[in-house]
């Protein structure tokens, strides 16, 4: 029985997608739920699985093709068995050499950057699937073999060093990078964006974390980080300042009765912002588990559209890359975004005494069409007060 392989139904905000790669070729046997083809939208890479066991009989849309929701990608025959290749009798090892394990999107990109093939990497995922961590392990093992390679075949190294060529490489933007560029330009051109700054003394929070992190991890099976405290503080502040949690829709202002906070995460494909839903009702353990789960899915290229859709407020942490200060750009249609930065010891005045404290600059970019300066400054000051005195988060004062 013939079965059609269709493009998954895309959200209304996503017009089309691009076929990235086929994991199987015509004539190959496939198992139910085995990944047949990967397609890339503006936000995520979607895996299209086989609906049943059978044989792939036709590929309609090749890699690089643009497709829309429910468009025919290919066909397969359900229940069929692939014919054994004639070369198998003369050379039994050939089929095994041709059969490559499935590769996660993030792993495939890293392999290409390091000139590795599937044969160079040992997959640790399900059914030998190659994950990003497997590629990283293979890359880490390469330097040990480098001296022998250079000694036995120095010509390539000399050629590269002696050429002196001014190299350029032109590559098309990925759909995600193009979408990021489009949204950033839209935010700059269509909003009255303004940024206000403050600084936070991180010592109380760091002391609390040092005292309770082991007990927290033992009880909740999650590590206690700084982000969960900032998310919780933001959720409290958003409820006190509803305009910061609002958005513009035409001539209307939409006030959201929930705090869906997006956490900006850097992935191999670019910046993505998975959403923590109803953070106003979440505890620190729930927030930490949610962030860890999204981080793992981003590394493996497993984020889906539901993870990235919506959001009423965003937090981005440039401090993990060493940023001391920045002005984050709004994530439309949200009216504000909080930027965290690196923690540095600086001299500050406490009780008329100059002391050394671990300080963090924070920035709030906001849409001045909705949020007035007083509201933005007070909102950021509220986050500062909550983080500097974490007990206030528990007492809600």
Automatic annotation (TrEMBL):
Keyword Transferase found: yes
Domain Lipoyl-binding: 2-77
GO MF annotation terms: dihydrolipoyllysine-residue succinyltransferase activity
Residue ranges constituting the Peripheral subunit-binding (PSBD) domain according to the UniProt record: 102-139
Keyword tags: Acyltransferase, Lipoyl, Transferase, Tricarboxylic acid cycle
Cofactor dependence: (R)-lipoate
Pfam families (alphabetical): 2-oxoacid_dh, Biotin_lipoyl, E3_binding
E.C. designation(s): 2.3.1.61
The protein's enzyme class: transferase
Catalytic activity: N(6)-[(R)-dihydrolipoyl]-L-lysyl-[protein] + succinyl-CoA = N(6)-[(R)-S(8)-succinyldihydrolipoyl]-L-lysyl-[protein] + CoA
Keyword Ligase listed: no
Pathway annotation: Amino-acid degradation; L-lysine degradation via saccharopine pathway; glutaryl-CoA from L-lysine: step 6/6
Gene3D superfamilies: 2.40.50.100, Chloramphenicol acetyltransferase-like domain, E3-binding domain
CDD domains recorded: lipoyl_domain
Superkingdom as given in the UniProt entry: Bacteria
Record note on cofactor: Binds 1 lipoyl cofactor covalently.
PANTHER family reported for this sequence: DIHYDROLIPOYLLYSINE-RESIDUE SUCCINYLTRANSFERASE COMPONENT OF 2-OXOGLUTARATE DEHYDROGENASE COMPLEX, MITOCHONDRIAL (PTHR43416:SF5), DIHYDROLIPOYLLYSINE-RESIDUE SUCCINYLTRANSFERASE COMPONENT OF 2-OXOGLUTARATE DEHYDROGENASE COMPLEX, MITOCHONDRIAL-RELATED (PTHR43416)
Protein's job: E2 component of the 2-oxoglutarate dehydrogenase (OGDH) complex which catalyzes the second step in the conversion of 2-oxoglutarate to succinyl-CoA and CO(2).
Family: Belongs to the 2-oxoacid dehydrogenase family.
Listed name of the protein: Dihydrolipoyllysine-residue succinyltransferase component of 2-oxoglutarate dehydrogenase complex
């Amino acid at each position: 029985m013939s079965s059609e392989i269709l493009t998954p139904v895309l959200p209304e905000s996503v017009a089309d997608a691009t076929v990235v790669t086929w994991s199987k070729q015509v004539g190959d046997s496939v198992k139910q739920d085995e990944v047949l083809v990967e397609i890339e939208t503006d936000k995520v890479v979607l895996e299209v699985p086989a609906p049943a066991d059978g044989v792939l009989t036709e590929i309609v849309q090749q890699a690089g093709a643009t497709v829309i929701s429910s468009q025919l990608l290919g066909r397969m025959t359900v229940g069929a068995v692939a014919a054994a290749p004639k070369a198998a009798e003369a050379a039994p090892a050939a089929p095994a050499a041709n059969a490559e394990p499935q590769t996660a999107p993030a792993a495939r990109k890293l392999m290409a950057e390091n000139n590795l093939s599937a044969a160079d990497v040992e997959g640790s995922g399900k059914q030998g699937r190659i994950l990003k961590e497997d590629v990283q392990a293979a890359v880490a093992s390469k330097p040990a073999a480098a001296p022998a390679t250079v000694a036995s075949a120095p010509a390539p190294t000399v050629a590269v060093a002696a050429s002196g060529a001014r190299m350029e490489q032109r590559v098309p933007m990925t759909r995600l990078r193009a979408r990021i560029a489009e949204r950033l330009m839209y935010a700059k051109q269509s909003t009255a964006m303004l940024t206000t700054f403050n600084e936070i003394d991180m010592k109380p929070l760091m002391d609390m974390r040092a005292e309770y992190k082991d007990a927290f991890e033992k009880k909740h099976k999650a590590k206690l980080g700084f982000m969960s405290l900032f998310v919780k503080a933001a959720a409290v502040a958003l409820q006190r300042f509803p305009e910061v949690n609002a958005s513009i829709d035409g001539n209307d202002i939409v006030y959201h009765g929930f705090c869906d906070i997006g956490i900006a995460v850097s992935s191999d494909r670019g910046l993505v912002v998975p959403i923590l839903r109803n953070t106003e009702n979440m505890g620190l353990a729930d927030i930490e588990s949610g962030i860890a789960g999204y981080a793992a899915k981003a590394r493996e290229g497993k984020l889906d559209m539901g993870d990235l859709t919506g959001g009423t407020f965003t937090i981005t942490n440039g401090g993990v890359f060493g940023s001391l200060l920045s002005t984050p750009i709004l994530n439309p249609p949200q009216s504000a975004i909080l930027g965290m930065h690196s923690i540095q010891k600086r001299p500050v005045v406490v009780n008329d005494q100059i002391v050394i404290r671990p300080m963090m600059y924070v920035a709030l970019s906001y849409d001045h069409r909705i949020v007035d300066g007083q509201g933005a400054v007070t909102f950021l000051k509220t986050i500062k007060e909550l983080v500097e005195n974490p007990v206030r988060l528990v007492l809600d004062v």
